[in-house]
Amino acid sequence: MPYTRELKELIRKVEATRPARVERKKRGEEFPLLSLKEREERLRKYHPDFVEGARREIRVGVNKGYAISPEIVDLLEARSRVDPDLIDLTKIAYETDVLIIGGGGAGTAAALTARERGAKVLIATKLRHGDANTMMAEGGIQAATKGTKDSPYFHYLDVIGGGHFKNDPELVYTLVTEAPKVIAWLESLGCMFTKFPDGRLKTLHGGGTCRKRMHYAADITGAEIMRTLRDEARNHPEEIKVLEFSPAVELILNEHGHCSGAVLYNLETEEYFVVKAKAVIMATGGSGRLHIQGFMTTNHYGATGDGLVMGYRAGVKLCFLHTVQYHPTGAVFPEQAEGLLITEKFRGAGANVLNIDGEQFVNEREPRDVESASFIRECTERGKGVPTPTGKVGVWLDSPMIDMLWGEGTVKREFPGKYILFKRYGIDISKEPILVYPTLHYQNGGLEYNCRCETSVPGFFAAGEVTGGVHGENRLMGNSLLDVCVFGRIAGENAAIYAKEKFKDGKLTLDHVRRYHRELEEAGIVTDRVAPMLLPDYTNPKVRERQLTTHYLGTLR
Amino acid sequence: MEEQGVKKEELVPIFIMGKRYDVPSSLTIQKAMEYAGYQLIRGCGCRGGICGACGTVYRFPGSYKIEVGLACQTVVQPNMYLAQIPFFPATKRVYDIEKVKPSIETIVKYYPEVLRCLQCNTCTKSCPMDIEVMDYIAAAMRGDIARLAELSFDCVMCGLCTARCPAEICQYNVAILGRRLYGKYILPKAEHLTEMVEQVRQGKYEQMLRELMDTNEETLKKLYNEREIEPEQADEFWEPKDKSFL
What we know:
heterodimer, A: alpha/beta, Flavocytochrome C3, Chain A, domain 1, FAD/NAD(P)-binding domain, 2 domains, five-stranded antiparallel beta sheet, about 35% helix, globular, B: alpha+beta, Ubiquitin-like (UB roll), five-stranded mixed beta sheet, 10 helices, flat
């Protein structure tokens, strides 16, 4: 759907201020950045993390008393999908060295390094191999690769400043020092990074970076990385097996308290079955599909926080889940594109953000949380948002500036994915701005782990968005693709070494699940909720009302 | 019984696998299926047009033409009748990326069926991403790896081309082989990257990083605030004034 007459009228105001803004940009004059103190004030007043009811205390488990998003607490205060007494742990369907739960960027990177270390790998994934947020990451991957102007030292400062100085220093150290190696690894696998003719990698700024270190493959960086890693995994079919449409629903421990496998669920035949492994890596990703505070999300269909639930029941602590990342620029028009990620690279390339009067109200390169809070303030308190035909509100992202700054055709060349997509709706984003609003984007926290990707449970490793600590309270753009590659690789290596050298066989058990159920009862939590959620339910509630089958009859519901 | 001022959305008939449902006209095929009551398991992925899970074919009554689209991106149209193709069997040949060469021999060795191409252009017409699929297969047949890679770059690997190819070519797997050959062997290597990896390995940044890790929050904040920011409009060869931590 092209812009309505009303919106086209409003776009004129953006066009009216554009030439002067482009001139200012060319002179290097920027809208002032906020000081650290101003940032904090802005967040406290306008960021969704701080609104009334944004957090609730968990009543059971190792983090009892920790207050996080109620949508996640609901999952933690839920029963297992399956009665542990009905699972026969002596019937083992698959046996492997390393079981990887999740087939996204972290899981696949882990599979490749575990294999290099000689391990047999089984990836269990809920949807298809590669169906993950990694696939959807657009903007880029950070790494200090240009020694004449950048170093891991500056990358470290950017990461820790973006994370409100709360990040785990060891994890950040690992992230920034492994970063150049990861880019070189991806280059050697044949990732088509965008380069100058002499091979220099092109780099851009992202929100909160002091040096241009965002490497990219047009505007589909994540897809390019994911499809390359997946193709490489498929080049080793004997050592890396993949079970699709088979999410894990519980971890299995053994009598020594070590992690020794998982219960998987076949989404199509609805069977549960047991995988025994010498080491397990959790790489299930994030939880945008929980629609925290009712926000729309950029996340993949399967991003339902399954790994948090399974890890927590097995006794692994959660951290940094008290903050949630809202990406400032999710599409709000047309309706079909709602929630869709508009990469930060647009702002990295110089596109201003503007209110209904075509005026700037915030620098376009603040860290994500500050940028989002500023959009929310403009649209609520200041009442300067742009109304959409469906009753939503947004601000303008002035993409046509990019062609004026970098030359005609830049938008089409650098953002082919978004250009084609909007063209289908009759919107030419090299000539018309994009209407955006913050959208639920990233789970800043998760399972507690260390720089070797070990958790508190022996034999149980974690990597990627399911973990917490490396990004502190707020992740910067381009550090999640980096995170999944860096820590995915480390998890794979260490799990393989563990499987070979430290694994101790023992009787399998689901006692931790029984204990968890008892704890729920003791806390007075009576519920028929089950978790992990596996998939969000978007079916029409009116249809639900007519689905009246009282019980299963054979396989027909 | 609608409240005044709130427009009731127009419902249009669509036929999901032949069965009629009336759905709001602004929905995508994917959301329309959910509106109709389907809980999607297959045929739904990123919901943002990049993962290729939801390739869909449809027709309109009386029309000979087979239309294609991604269900998450295509808005419903009255009377369309549709089916998703969430999975299609495809050939994926196993190769060692370290040992292959960016040449026609590699293509012919792993995907000899590209030579069966009839140049019917059905693949191009089947592509929801508007990729010139037949042209990149032609490039593959000539051994023009660079052209194969560049033309196929936007491929989401949904498999619609493969589903319809009369020569039984699996275009998207040929394409990713081409892109990996191009990325690894034809694009020049980034020398600055190799240098940086070596510097890190030699421990050049070790001491300054360890010191940062031991720095208290107050000092870190100061260092953070004083970072010299590379100007957005700076060219590739900009250098900071202070070079002490490079």
